[in-house]
Design a protein that fits this description.
Among the domains are: 250 residues, Rossmann fold (3-Layer(aba) Sandwich), CATH 3.40.50; 41 residues, no CATH class; 93 residues; 35 residues, no CATH class. The chain is built from 12 helices and 37 strands. 17% of the residues lie in helices and 33% in strands. The chain is globular. By secondary structure, the chain is an alpha+beta fold. It has an 8-stranded mixed beta sheet, sandwiched between helices. A 7-stranded antiparallel beta sheet has the order 7-8-9-10-11-12-13, with no helix packed on it. It has a 4-stranded antiparallel beta sheet with strand order 3-4-5-6.
Length: 692
C-alpha cells in the first residue's frame, strides 16, 4: 500500500537548524521553527498537511460516512443522565435529537416534576467551532449557577454566573480560569482557580457577586512549579478544600464553607512521593494516603481540630495489590473504590461497627465498575456504574444497608445490539522479564483462534491511569467487520497496583513499551492475529508509546494511529516554560539531571526516528493544545518524511479550531472516529474502494 505518486507531498526541508546543548552533548533540531505559529511558513505547512490528508482520505469518504452512520445509529440522541438529588432538586444533563451539546436541567420536588433548563450549551455554541463547559456549579440555595466556558480548546475558561430566577447573566465575567469552582454557603462568594503565564493553575481567588473581579481576593498562590492548585467541596458541605497537587504529591488545606472570611488551615505538609486526599465526617477527617510504605494506600483518621500527621490514626490498613483509588463519606458509611486482582471493586464500610463488604453480583471476568460521588451526605444510597467490553453502561443505586442494587438506567442502542453475539476474554501475556500483563479482548463469538484476524490494539501506560474494559459503541464497527478489539493493560498504569505504575515510569519507562510489544507478540503467538495485521492506537502519552514501538518494532503493525502524541519528549522536558514540564519531572524524570537526560534520549520518538520502513500512520494534533503542543506531532511527521525508507501513507491532521480533546460536539467526535477507522480499514486492505 503506497501513497507515492497519487498524493505527492514533499518532505519539508530543514531550515534554520536550532542548536541544543545539554550535559556536554550538542545536536541540531532542523524542525524547531515549527513551534513558532507566527513564522510565515508554519500555518501554511500545517494547512498543506491537512489538504494532503483530506485528499488521501477523500476516496474513503463513503466508508467513513457508513461508519459514521453506524456509530450514530447506536446513540440514543434524546438521552439524559440519571437525576441526582440535592435538597429539593434533582439535577441531570440531557441531549436533544440532532443537537451536539448537553443541556443542564433540574426538577423540583421529584423526578417527575416540571423541567427547568439551567444552561443550554447548544445556544452557547452557536457561531463557535468549539465549545466546552469545564465547570458547572449551582449555588447552595439553588438560585444561581456558575459555569466556565472554553471556545477554542485551549482549556482556558471564562466564568459566568446566571440568576436562575430572572435568567439574567451577572456582569461578573472572570477570564483565564481553569476547571475548579466552589460556592461558599452564603451564596454570595465563590472560589476559583486562575492560570499563570505558563498556563498553570497556580492561584485561588475568592469572588463576591457584584464586585469587580479585578479586586478579587487572592486566597492561595503556589510557588512550586511542580504543583497545580484547585478547589473542592466536601459531601457534607462543611468545608472547602484548596489542593496543591503534583505527580504523586499533594498538600491539602481547608476552610469553613460557612465563613467567606475564614482562613486556610493546612492538613499536612507536602513531601516527595507523598500523596493524600481528604474527606470530612463530623469531627474527623478520613485521609487516604501512601505514607509509611503503603504503596497501594491506606486510610487514616485525624481530628478536624488537629489534622496534622502526628494525629493520624490508622483506620483501614494497607493491603498490597489492593490499590485504594478513592474514598467518599456519607452519614453512616464510607464508600471505597479499589481494585483486586487488577479488577475494580466497590467496598462499603459501616461506620458504627466497622463492618465492610464488597458490592457483589458481578458475573463477568473482565469489567469496569466505579462508585459515583453523590450530592447528598445524609443518605444510605450510593450510586455506581458498571460496564464491560460487551455490556452497555449501566447505572445502579445501591442501598448500603439492605445491600440491594436497583438498576436506574442502561445504555440504549437504538439500532439494535445483542451481547450474545460477542464474547470477551481476559488473557495474560508474559513480558520479557517474566511479568504477566493482562489484555482485555472483545470479538464476535467464535472469532478467536483463526490467526489471521485484524486486531485493534490500544495502549496507554502512563501517569498511573487505568484503562478500563468499558463498552464502546464505536468499537462495534470494527468488531462487526472481523476485528478483535484489544486493550493492553501495560505497566505505567495502575491496573495491578502502585508497583505496576512505578515499574513503568522514570528509569523503568521502557517496561511500558516492552509490554506493548510483548502483548502484540503474544496475540500473534496465540493465534489471535498475525504480524502486520495489528492496528496500534494510542493518544497523548499513548501516542508516545506509538512513536517508540514504531521506531523499535514496525514489523509487527499493519498501521498506527497516534492522537496528539507526546513524541518530542526530550525537547519538551528541557523546556520548563511549557505548562506541564516541571510537574511531570516525577513521571519522566528531570533531564537537567544527566541520568534522566540519557535515559529519555534512548526512547524519545522524535529523537530516535531512523532510516527504515514504517507502517502506514495517521497522526493528529490540536493547534491550541496546551498539553501536547501541536508542534510535537508536526515535527515528528516532518522528520519521518525526511528519514523513512518506505512510501506508506503518513498523514498529519491538525485540528485548527480545537485542542487536546479534539472536537467538542458529540457528532463531530464521531466523525473523527469514523475517519480513523476508515484509515485503518484501508491500511488493512479491508476498505472499498480498493487501495490506490
Amino acid at each position: 500500500m503506497s501513497d507515492a505518486g497519487q498524493f505527492p507531498l514533499q518532505p519539508i526541508a530543514p531550515r534554520r537548524p536550532h542548536s541544543v546543548t545539554a550535559h556536554g552533548d550538542s545536536w541540531s533540531d532542523p524542525w524547531f521553527w515549527l513551534r513558532e505559529q507566527d513564522d510565515p511558513e508554519t500555518i501554511p505547512y500545517l494547512v498543506a498537511e491537512n489538504v494532503y490528508t483530506d485528499a488521501f482520505l477523500e476516496p474513503l469518504k463513503p466508508l467513513q460516512d457508513a461508519i459514521y452512520g453506524e456509530i450514530r445509529g447506536r446513540i440514543k440522541e434524546d438521552d439524559n443522565t440519571v437525576p441526582e438529588k440535592e435538597g429539593d432538586y434533582y439535577y441531570y444533563v440531557r441531549y436533544e435529537e440532532g443537537e451536539q451539546y448537553p443541556i443542564y436541567c433540574r426538577k423540583s420536588g421529584s423526578e417527575a416534576g416540571a423541567e427547568e433548563i439551567l444552561l443550554n450549551v447548544n445556544i452557547l455554541a452557536d457561531g463557535h467551532e468549539y465549545t466546552r463547559v469545564g465547570t458547572f456549579e449551582n449555588s447552595p440555595d439553588h438560585r444561581m449557577i456558575a459555569y466556565g466556558i472554553d471556545h477554542d480548546g485551549s482549556e482556558q475558561y471564562t466564568i459566568h454566573v446566571v440568576d436562575l430566577e430572572t435568567g439574567e447573566t451577572f456582569p461578573d465575567t472572570i477570564p483565564n480560569t481553569y476547571y475548579s469552582l466552589e460556592w461558599c454557603n452564603d451564596n454570595r462568594h465563590f472560589y476559583y482557580s486562575i492560570l499563570d503565564e505558563h498556563h498553570r493553575p497556580v492561584s485561588i481567588y475568592r469572588h463576591r457577586l457584584g464586585d469587580d473581579p479585578a479586586n478579587d481576593l487572592l486566597v492561595y498562590h503556589e510557588d512550586d512549579s511542580r504543583f497545580f492548585v484547585g478547589v473542592g467541596k466536601s459531601n457534607s458541605g462543611r468545608f472547602i478544600y484548596v489542593v496543591a497537587g503534583g505527580n504523586n504529591m499533594s498538600e491539602w488545606r481547608f476552610l469553613d464553607a460557612n465563613d467567606p472570611a475564614a482562613d486556610l488551615t493546612l492538613i499536612e505538609e507536602r513531601a516527595t512521593d507523598f500523596d493524600y486526599d481528604v474527606v470530612d465526617h463530623g469531627d474527623r477527617f478520613f485521609i487516604r494516603h501512601n505514607g509509611e510504605g503503603a504503596k497501594d494506600f491506606k486510610v487514616a483518621t485525624a481530628p478536624v481540630s488537629s489534622p496534622s500527621w502526628e494525629h493520624w490514626a490508622e483506620f483501614l490498613p494497607h493491603e498490597a495489590g489492593r490499590p485504594i483509588r478513592g474514598v467518599d463519606a456519607y452519614r453512616d458509611h464510607l464508600v471505597i473504590g479499589c481494585r483486586r486482582d487488577g479488577l475494580p471493586q466497590v467496598m462499603v464500610l459501616r461506620l458504627s461497627d466497622g463492618e465492610a463488604h464488597y458490592i457483589a453480583g458481578i458475573e463477568e471476568d473482565d469489567f469496569a465498575m466505579s462508585p459515583r460521588s453523590g450530592r447528598e451526605f445524609d443518605t444510605n444510597t450510593v450510586r455506581f456504574g458498571y460496564t464491560s467490553l460487551k455490556s452497555p453502561a449501566s447505572v445502579y443505586d445501591y442501598d448500603m444497608e439492605s445491600r440491594q442494587a436497583i438498576l436506574r438506567k442502561q445504555q440504549e442502542i437504538p439500532s439494535g445490539y445483542d451481547p450474545g453475539e460477542y464474547e470477551t476474554q481476559r488473557i495474560w501475556a508474559t513480558a520479557r522479564d517474566g511479568t504477566q500483563v493482562p489484555i482485555s479482548l472483545l470479538m464476535r463469538r467464535g472469532a478467536a483462534g483463526q490467526g489471521q484476524a485484524p486486531l485493534y490494539l490500544y495502549g496507554y501506560g502512563s501517569y498511573g491511569l487505568t484503562m478500563e474494559a468499558s463498552f464502546s459503541i464505536s468499537a462495534l464497527s470494527l468488531v462487526d467487520r472481523g476485528f478483535i478489539f484489544a486493550i493492553a493493560h501495560i505497566r505505567g498504569g495502575m491496573e495491578m497496583g502502585w508497583d505496576w505504575y512505578e515499574n513503568g515510569k522514570l528509569l523503568n519507562k521502557r517496561n511500558t513499551f516492552n509490554d506493548f510489544i510483548d502483548c502484540a507478540e503474544h496475540l500473534i503467538n496465540e493465534g489471535y492475529t498475525s504480524a502486520g495485521r495489528i492496528a496500534a492506537v494510542g493518544g497523548s502519552a499513548g501516542g508516545m508509546l506509538m512513536g517508540v514501538v514504531a521506531n523499535e518494532r514496525p514489523d509487527l503493525f499493519g498501521c498506527m494511529v497516534a492522537h496528539v502524541p507526546f513524541v518530542d519528549v526530550l525537547n519538551t522536558m528541557l523546556d520548563d516554560t511549557l505548562p506541564l514540564t516541571t510537574m511531570e519531572y516525577n513521571e519522566w524524570g528531570n533531564p537537567n539531571e544527566s541520568e534522566y537526560f540519557r535515559y529519555i534520549g534512548t526512547y524519545s520518538p522524535y529523537d530516535n526516528v531512523r532510516a527504515q520502513d514504517y507502517p502506514p500512520m495517521l497522526v493528529t494534533a490540536g493547534i491550541s493544545d496546551p498539553r501536547v503542543t501541536y508542534w510535537e506531532p508536526a515535527k515528528w511527521v516532518a522528520k519521518l518524511r525526511a528519514t523513512r525508507t518506505d512510501s506508506n501513507p503518513l498523514l498529519l491532521k491538525t485540528h485548527m479550531d480545537s485542542g487536546h480533546a479534539g472536537a467538542s460536539g458529540r457528532f463531530e467526535r464521531i466523525k473523527e472516529v469514523a475517519e480513523e477507522y476508515a484509515f485503518l480499514l484501508h491500511a488493512m486492505g479491508m476498505a472499498e474502494p480498493a487501495d490506490g
